[in-house]
Amino acid sequence: MSGSPDEEKLEELRQKKMEQLQEQAEGQQGQGGASQEAAQQQAEAQKKALLRQYLTDDARKRLNTVKMSKPQFGEQVERQVVTLAKSGRIQGKIDDDKMKKLLQELKPDSKSFDITRR
């Protein structure tokens, strides 16, 4: 985010529109499967747009690689990035190094075994 007033206003408008669409989606959930499916597709498109906005190409490639090997963990990382973006806690873009650190922090603890030979 370069900080120009026009971009800030545009971002505010995007956030308001996303909130409105989410409220509409929540209101339409009881009205049938077709509108719920459309709301899901809209939410997915919003998530992809946020990821495109806040991740560099290399970071997106790394995230896609993680999603292919570990889909649940990849989704968790995506949700974390979207949450950080919506709360405004991301300054600039997340590059590959920052993505590595984020993945390391969110990675579940792996068990390590020490084998000693006698």
UniProtKB/TrEMBL annotation:
GO terms for cellular component: cytosol. InterPro entries: DNA_bind_arc, PDCD5-like, PDCD5-like_sf. Keywords: DNA-binding. Residues 11-20 have a biased composition (Basic and acidic residues). Gene3D superfamilies: PDCD5-like. It comes from the Archaea. SUPFAM superfamilies: Double-stranded DNA-binding domain. Belongs to the PDCD5 family. This is DNA-binding protein SAMN04515672_4068. NCBIfam families: PRK04239.1. Residues 21-44 have a biased composition (Low complexity). GO terms for molecular function: DNA binding. Residues 1-47 are annotated as: Disordered.
